[in-house]
Each structure stands twice: as structure tokens, then as C-alpha cells.
Amino acid sequence: xxxxxxxxxxxxxxxxxxxxxxxxxxxxxxxxxxxxxxxxxxxxxxxxxxxxxxxxxxxxxxxxxxxxxxxxxxxxxxxxxxxxxxxxxxxxxxxxxxxxxxxxxxxxxxxxxxxxxxxxxxxxxxxxxxxxxxxxxxxxxxxxxxxxxxxxxxxxxxxxxxxxxxxxxxxxxxxxxxxxxxxxxxxxxxxxxxxxxxxxxxxxxxxxxxxxxxxxxxxxxxxxxxxxxxxxxxxxxxxxxxxxxxxxxxxxxxxxxxxxxxxxxxx
Length: 267
Prior knowledge:
9-stranded mixed sheet, elongated, alpha/beta, 2 domains
């Protein structure tokens, strides 16, 4: 593995840490890619400023401080000049559907069949996106096939339009080795199903009942024994479908059956 590849691997392994990105920018400078390095530093700097400002204050300060506008203008200039090169790895999914944040492609938007047919090259990229937003193009959603798409634990699949006007349904990695980091924050309602039960998931369209209180997700399993890897509290639960409530990564309640349970958040 080259030094550059090792630094990219560190970025993927530590997605919330800006330090590996800045170290990689230094490496790019030393290897004749000054504009790519500058772009990473500009986006990381802006993200840090926005992250530190209180909600609602960020835009106000951007309006008042010319240097921040200059950063945005320089970012846009660098991206426009290098777009074809930097976006080229995402050609299969449409370059216009990618979004750079903190120096790298963070989000990709695609149709269901685009992901189903082209997921292998996507997740084999050295820096795959952190979020793939799936936007259906018709009333039929191939949910069983989408749930079977293997993806890395650092990438989130979010399906829009599964229930009306309620945001995204998170499609979780099949058979994960441990609970994903984003499920360790806040309230989640997870529907766990075996491979042969995915056809029953039309009932999950009523997820919108719970959406007011929890973020919602679906996890597919090939074997129920996989429960113990990511959720030890369910190690002795041998029936699915199963609804699981998580609060900051801890199981507060779980219930078997495909029927929609009482979705009031546990006290």
C-alpha cells in the first residue's frame, strides 16, 4: 500500500476526524497536487467554523465576514476547474449527483436500480461516499434487493419516499459485526427481518407513525444468531421480524411480530 493509499484508509477509518484529511492534504502538496490540497483545507476550515457556531448564527456571520465569502469563492473556483478529474470515479452514478464536504465526496444521490446494479464498484472506491441517498423513480421500490446490497459500516444508505413526508428510512448493513456509530446517538426504531421475510415489509410503510419520535431503520439478517454481534441484549431472541427500540445505542424495548406495535416511546 502506498503512502497516499494508507492516508486515505485512515480517513475512511476515522470519518469524523479532520486530522487525517489535513495530513493527506500535506502529502498532496508534496506530490504535485496543490489545488486538491488547498480544496481539502478550505472545506475542512469552513466545516470547523460552521460546527463551532451556534445554530442560526453561522449564516449571519458568513454574511458579515468577507473572508468566509472569499473561501467559498475559492472553493467554487477550484471545484469548477478540477470537477472532471475529481468527480471522474463517480461517472457511473452521474457526476451532478455528488456533493463534496470536508474535501471529499460525502453524499451520492441515485435511483434504486443504479445502486443495485452498480454497488460493487461504488464501495470498492478508495473513498466511497459517507451517505448514499436513494430516490425512487416510481411507486415500486425494490426494498428486498436494496436491503441485500452489501456496504461498508462507514457508509449509510438512506431511502427517500418509503413513507409520505417523513424523511428517510435507513437501510442498515446486513449481518454487521457491531452496532453502527450513528445508531449509538439518539432514538432509533429498527425493524429486524430474516432474508425470507423481506416480502412482508409493506407493513413497515406505517413507519411514519413512529417517525415523529424516532429515526427509523431496517436491518436484514441471514441468520438470527447475528443478533448477538451487534446487539447482545437480543442474543436469546430467536424470532423475527422483531422491532427494536434503541436509545443512545442501548436496547430499551423489543417486540416480535410483523404487526406494527405500539410505537409510543418507552418511558
